Amino acid sequence: MGAVVSCIQSCIRTIGRTIMAIINGIGGIIMAIVSGIVTFLDTIVGCLTCNTCGGHRRHRGTSRSGRGFGRRRHVGRTSAI
Q: Which residue stretches does the UniProt record annotate as biased composition, category Basic residues (predicted)?
């Protein structure tokens, strides 16, 4: 008798986990759709308010040589390299 109850509990637990997985998947899809809409509206508002269009951003504090070091200062010296 205990084995039958255990089997039924296992089946019900599996069904519950499946339903929760489906609900989590639907929630993820809805969140992706809303995020896409917000990003689209942000782009439109940025273009209408003379913000930079096309995704070009300014990089601050890094050198243009591609090394990524910028201006480094040596300990004990007041001049920058």
A: 69-81
Q: 37-43: list long-range contacts, CB under 8 Å, 24+ apart.
A: none
**Residue 70: both structure tokens together:** 């910028």
Secondary structure of the chain as H, E, C letters: CHHHHHHHHHHHHHHHHHHHHHHHHHHHHHHHHHHHHHHHHHHHHHHHCCCCCCCCCCCCCCCCCCCCCCCCECCCCCCEC
Task: With 0.90 as the threshold, say if the pTM is over it.
Answer: no
The CB density around residue 22, as the number of other CB atoms within 10 Å, is: 10
Tell me: the pLDDT tens digits for 29-59?
999 999 999 999 998 888 888 766 655 555 5
